[in-house]
């Protein structure tokens, strides 16, 4: 089977690789005014870290969302395999004792 | 067709010069919306356009208030013809390729960032307040355009050639930024307006530093174009206004 050819006769798969190498993908994390931790908000393309920071500011903080930005090369993120979901996460379902729901809260503590 | 002529008072004219610079460049940048080289830059240019239009608005409102003719910011923006516009020629130049847009933005922002910072000390409280807000925006416009220019200049042979060509093409519009005429002299003496010559060393320093990093050659200061601030514009401004003013010309007073 011939590979699908994109514009200019460059195979689609290779063209995307070239773009990705010159303008890599970055993940953007924003710390909001009322949040303590940086939260993942999305991704963007940028040639380098300074341009990624600026793009993150322009794309993701237009409505006063942020006080601090992190950008991380997407390639630097190690992700768990969705196929491992059952192995990794299901065993915890039967361990209800890990939730702090078996303690009587003394009245004096008040609202928790 | 209704066409208005703004008052000659120096303070009105000064406010209009600053407002027209911001509005015309803001409109130019808005032309990139949906057309920029990449999504991230599309939004970045639209952000800068909105900053600039946001700077123009209180300046028009102030000019209208000083005039006392019962006009408002919309009337000053939409009902003056090209010969009544007071912007420098640099900001009305066409977007060209991305390099032209970035060079135009850089040359302007390198001037406006220190301009607003110093105008924040104006004896005129309204100018001072507008400048204090615009200062931070202009500092970011400078940072954004400078970083792009460094990457275009110090990028591929193609991007370098385009950046150098854009610089050579636009350089003759930089002289006008530093002009001050009789209208401004009086305001400068009163501590209301800024003598643009005082910004020259910082502008030179910024331009030389960024061009150096970008491996671009600073063009020689040859013959400089001028005239925008007294209403003598290039043919481009008429097309901008035709686009921008169409609605108010065709449907006077239309609101939504």
Could you please describe the fold and organization of this structure?
The complex is a heterodimer of chains A (112) and B (256). In chain A, strand 1 (25-32) and strand 2 (39-45) form a beta hairpin. Chain A has 112 residues and is of the alpha+beta class. The termini of chain A are far apart. A 3-stranded antiparallel sheet of chain A has the order 2-1-3, with helices on one face. Chain A has 3 helices and 3 strands. Chain A has a domain at 7-79: Ubiquitin-like (UB roll). Chain B is globular. The model of chain B has no long low-confidence stretch (mean pLDDT 96). Chain B contains 10 helices and no strands. Chain B starts with 9 loop residues before the first helix and ends in a 6-residue tail after the last helix. In chain B, 44% of the residues are buried.
Please name the CATH architecture of the domain at 7-79 in chain A.
Roll
Helix content of chain B: 55-70%
State the helix count of chain A.
Answer: 3
- Overall radius of gyration of chain B: 18 Å
Separation of the first and last Cα atoms of chain A: 64 Å
Largest inter-chain interface? Answer: A-B, 13 and 12 residues
> What is the second-level CATH architecture of chain B?
Up-down Bundle
- For CATH, the homologous superfamily of the domain at 7-79 in chain A is named as Phenylacetic acid degradation B
Low-confidence stretches of chain A: 1-9
CATH topology of chain B: Ferritin
Radius of gyration of chain A from the CA trace?
Answer: 22 Å
In CATH, the topology of the domain at 7-79 in chain A is named Ubiquitin-like (UB roll)
The geometry of chain A reads as: flat
How many H/I helical runs of chain B? 10
CATH H-level superfamily title of chain B: Ferritin, core subunit, four-helix bundle
State the CATH class of chain B. Answer: Mainly Alpha
């Amino acid at each position: 089977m011939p590979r699908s050819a994109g514009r200019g006769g460059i195979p689609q798969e290779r063209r995307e690789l070239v773009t990705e190498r010159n303008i890599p993908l970055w993940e953007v994390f924003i710390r909001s005014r009322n949040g303590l931790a940086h939260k993942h908000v999305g991704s963007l393309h940028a040639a380098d870290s300074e341009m990624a920071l600026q793009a993150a500011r322009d794309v993701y903080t237009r409505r006063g969302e942020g006080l601090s930005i992190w950008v991380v090369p997407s390639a630097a993120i190690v992700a768990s395999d969705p196929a491992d979901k059952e192995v990794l996460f299901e065993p915890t379902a039967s361990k209800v004792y890990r939730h702090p729901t078996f303690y009587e809260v003394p009245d004096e503590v008040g609202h928790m | 067709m209704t066409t208005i002529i703004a008052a000659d008072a120096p303070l009105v004219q000064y406010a209009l010069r600053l407002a027209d610079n911001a509005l015309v460049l803001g409109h130019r940048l808005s032309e990139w919306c949906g057309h920029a080289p990449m999504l991230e830059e599309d939004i970045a240019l639209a952000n800068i356009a909105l900053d600039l239009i946001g700077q123009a608005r209180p300046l028009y409102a102030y000019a209208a208030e000083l005039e006392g003719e019962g006009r408002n910011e919309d009337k000053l923006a939409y009902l003056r013809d090209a010969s009544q516009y007071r912007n420098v020629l640099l900001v009305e130049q066409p977007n060209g390729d991305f390099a032209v847009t970035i060079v135009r933005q850089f040359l302007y922002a390198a001037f406006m960032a220190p301009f607003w910072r110093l105008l924040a000390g104006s004896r005129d409280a309204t100018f001072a307040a507008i400048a204090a807000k615009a200062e931070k925006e202009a500092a970011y416009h400078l940072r954004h355009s400078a970083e792009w220019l460094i990457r275009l200049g110090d990028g591929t042979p193609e991007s370098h050639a385009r950046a150098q060509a854009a610089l050579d093409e636009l350089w003759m519009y930089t002289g006008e930024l530093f002009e001050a005429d009789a209208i401004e002299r009086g305001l400068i003496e009163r501590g209301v307006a800024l003598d643009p010559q005082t910004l020259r060393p910082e502008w030179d320093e910024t331009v030389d530093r960024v061009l150096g990093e970008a491996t671009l050659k600073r063009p020689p200061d040859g013959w400089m174009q001028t005239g925008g601030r007294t209403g003598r514009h290039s043919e481009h401004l008429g097309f901008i206004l035709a686009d921008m003013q169409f609605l108010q010309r065709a449907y006077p007073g239309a609101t939504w």
